[in-house]
Design a protein that fits this description.
Layout lengths: L2 H8 L14 E7 L8 E7 L7 E11 L1 H8 L2 H6 L11 E9 L11 E5 L11 E5 L4 E3 L6 H4 L3 H14 L6 E5 L4 H12 L3 E6 L4 H7 L3 E4 L12 E6 L6 H5 L2 E9 L8 H13 L6 E6 L3 H10 L5 E5 L5
Parallel strand pairs: 8-9, 8-11, 9-10, 11-12, 13-14
Antiparallel strand pairs: 1-2, 3-4, 3-6, 3-14, 4-5, 5-7
Helix pairs in contact: 5-6, 5-9
């Protein structure tokens, strides 16, 4: 199946007509050098023109992820050593509207409502516009889903989906999600539950109600319960926060069980993003939002993520929702 056929098979319909001509300059949050969030600054940059195989998206909403914080701190040489592209403008996930299409780009038209990720690009989505490959990590979003609802979904949900697949999670699987109230954790609980798994979440007591609402049968308070001594054994232990190590994780497994962890590297794929979009469309998946900022508040958004205590996702609104 070629790119055009693949897009046609998965794209939604009913995109409105394209918007008015775009401006020449845009607001963007630029990273001057690696290190503190104090090095982030809101500035103006030229609006990028899409390459022949790219589309230009007017960003309506984005997020600050743990990965954005890691990249902000990491020197460019180290980023390249890990096979990543250093970004002067951060922002890994986004939702918005296509405003221009390259001559060789297929599958999208101006006006299409989309969400995606900026993997492999030189500029991220903490800006009013972002250009992305038409055959990359980009899908149309359902008409009933607002940009602010879609923007925090791609990264955390694709990560959760990948590792649940790696663990073989399906109907009746007993799953422990460690860090169940974070971005990846909240998506993992929902996706595992949608597959018919029996989910136990590990979180703080203040987030227990949320984790149950997302689909967990039981929630363990990490501050008062040593999960290793809780007595339960699981087919899959999904460590979303990297706090279970070696024997600690292995001791929680039933015979033949598996440990999966976000400490492992992974590649994001278009089929994963399409599956995530479909779960969002049916209502089986929703993004939990801890707090919301605009571009001018990006340093505060980073500060929330750096605490390690956020519930779900930190949203950044760039322009009006629809």
């Amino acid at each position: 199946m070629n790119a055009q056929e693949r897009r046609a098979a998965h794209a939604t319909t009913g995109s409105p007509a394209g918007p008015a001509p775009r401006p020449q300059m845009m607001r963007a949050v630029r990273t001057r050098r690696a290190g503190s969030a104090a090095h982030l600054e809101l500035t103006e940059l030229p609006v990028p023109a899409p390459a022949p195989d790219e589309v230009l998206v007017a960003v309506h909403a984005t997020s600050v992820t743990r990965g954005d914080v890691v990249l902000r701190r990491m020197p460019g040489l180290v980023v390249r050593a890990f096979g990543e592209t250093p970004k002067r403008v951060l922002g890994h996930e986004f939702a918005g509207r296509v405003v221009a299409v390259g001559d060789q780009a297929v599958g999208f038209a101006p006006g299409a409502r989309v969400m995606g990720a900026t993997s492999g690009t030189a500029h991220g989505a903490h800006a009013e516009f972002v250009r992305v490959a038409a055959d990359g990590l980009l899908v149309e979003i359902p008409d009933h889903v607002a940009f602010a609802e879609a923007a925090p979904v791609p990264v955390g949900a694709m990560t959760a989906l990948h590792f649940l697949d790696a663990g073989g999670v399906g109907h009746g699987t007993r799953v422990l999600v460690n860090g169940a109230s974070g971005s990846v954790g909240t998506f993992a609980v929902q996706i595992a539950r949608a597959r018919g798994a029996r989910v136990t979440g590990v979180s703080s007591a203040r987030n227990a109600t949320l984790v149950r609402e997302l689909g967990a049968e039981e929630v363990l308070d990490h501050a008062t319960v040593d999960v290793r001594e809780a007595g339960a054994r699981f087919d899959v232990v999904f460590d979303t926060v990297g706090t279970l190590r070696g024997r600690s994780a292995g001791a929680l497994l039933a015979p033949g069980g598996r440990v999966v962890t976000t400490r492992s590297r992974r590649d994001e794929t278009l089929p994963e993003l399409m599956e995530v979009r479909d779960l969002l469309a049916t209502g089986a998946l929703r993004a939990v939002v801890d707090s919301t900022y605009d571009l001018a508040g990006i340093r505060d958004a980073h500060a929330v993520v750096e605490t390690g205590r956020k519930r779900g996702n930190v949203l950044v609104r760039v322009r009006g929702d629809r």
